[in-house]
Amino acid sequence: MFRTMLTHAKKHPSLIPLFAFVGLGAVGSVMYALRVTMRSPDVSWDRKNNPEPWSKNSPNYQYKFYSETIDYKKLKKEGPDY
Fold first, then answer.
1. By percentage, how much of the chain surpasses pLDDT 70?
2. CB distance 1 to 19 below 8 Å
3. What CA–CA distance (Å, rounded) separates 67 from 3?
4. Which of 1, 7, 41, 79 is deepest in the core (most CB within 10 A)?
5. Most distant CA pair in the chain: distance in Å?
6. Angle at the Cα of 48 (from 45 to 49), degrees rounded to 5?
7. If you average pLDDT over residues 63-72, what whole number do you get?
8. Which residues, including other chains, have CB under 8 Å from residue 72's CB and lie 6 or more apart?
9. DSSP state of 73
10. What are the distances in angstroms from CA 11 to CA 5, 23, 25?
11. What is the pTM (predicted TM-score) of this model?
12. Is 79 buried (19+), middle (13-18) or exposed (0-12) by CB count in 10 A?
């Protein structure tokens, strides 16, 4: 497959940016999927030792990758400690 891409890129140099952007998009999507599976409080890999990982996070923990409306540094806890 890569040999075919290289031969096409040599014959048609205008395809090089296309291959670069498609590769960058694939790497970005894989990195984001890894980030969501490793850093999200909704995903629990160890149910035996930590069945509720979201309860250990502080109230100003930033769950989302980017939020333009919520300032997580100013949030306060709204419930009792368990």
1. 59
2. no
3. 42
4. 41
5. 67
6. 85
7. 67
8. 60, 61, 62
9. G
10. 10, 19, 24
11. 0.54
12. exposed
